[in-house]
Specification:
The protein has helices at residues 18-28, 45-52, 65-78, 98-103, 123-140, 156-161, 170-181, 205-222, and strands at 5-11, 33-39, 55-59, 83-86, 110-114, 152-155, 186-190. It is of the alpha/beta class. Strand 1 (5-11), helix 1 (18-28) and strand 2 (33-39) form a beta-alpha-beta unit.
Length: 223
């Protein structure tokens, strides 16, 4: 499938890793238009993005991953992308898997790069992820093994039509559920995961946001 691909990389205090992520995407998906979003970083993230990306969006203060992704999606649509990749800036996602996610768009509208929970995922994240997976899968009526993964491929129509709330990590779960509620096809592709750089995910507050997002979508589905 021939696609005009944009890649959105939300980044916060990721100076040491984000340049390698952007360069990895370029190697894996030649011709991809790389959009970096500096979400109010306090280190050299902006300079690293400037050196590796086609366009950089810079927020004056940290507004959250959801805000950063929405900003990146807007640029991708304006650049007439047919498909959009999202990767985290901390290096946990191997960009070499990007072509497999894009290829899966042949039979789906949104593809999740699914991480193995036992492969080094911190225990708090593992528990939250498992509970979210069970809840989201039940509500949508289809298996969603890793609803919080930030490694995704999305078709243009999904981004144009889905309106999801949440400014931080809950945005990705809410976006996924809203897409499923609209009838978009969701697929999963197993991906290797590398843990090393510290995560900005906060086990209590961000997990609570994810739970609230799931309940909002459940209530909406029940109406």
């Amino acid at each position: 499938m021939s696609l005009r691909v944009a890649c959105v990389i939300p980044a916060y205090d990721a100076e040491a890793t984000v340049g390698g992520v952007a360069r990895g995407v370029r190697a894996a998906v030649p011709g991809a238009f790389v959009i970096g979003v500096d979400d109010g970083s306090r280190d050299g993230t902006r300079a690293a993005l400037d050196a590796a990306c086609d366009v950089v969006i810079a927020h004056a203060r940290n507004a959250g991953k959801g805000v950063a992704l929405r900003a990146g999606f807007a640029v991708a649509l304006a650049r007439e992308a047919h498909a959009v990749l999202t990767l985290d800036a901390d290096g946990q996602h191997d960009p070499a898997a990007a072509p497999a996610l894009l290829a899966a768009l042949d039979g789906a509208d949104l593809v999740i790069g699914t991480r193995a929970r036992a492969a080094g995922m911190p225990i708090g994240r593992r528990l939250t992820n498992a509970l979210a997976s069970a809840a989201v899968s039940r509500i949508l009526g289809t298996s969603v093994p890793d609803p919080q993964s930030g490694f995704r491929a999305l078709g243009r129509r999904v981004i144009e039509r889905v309106r999801a709330g949440g400014d931080r990590y809950e945005f990705e779960t809410e976006f996924l559920m809203a897409a499923g509620a609209l009838g978009f096809r969701i697929a999963a592709v197993p991906v290797a995961t590398r843990y090393g750089a510290p995560s900005h995910f906060r086990a209590f507050s961000d997990s609570a946001r994810v739970v609230r997002a799931i309940w909002r979508q459940r209530a909406a589905a029940a109406r």
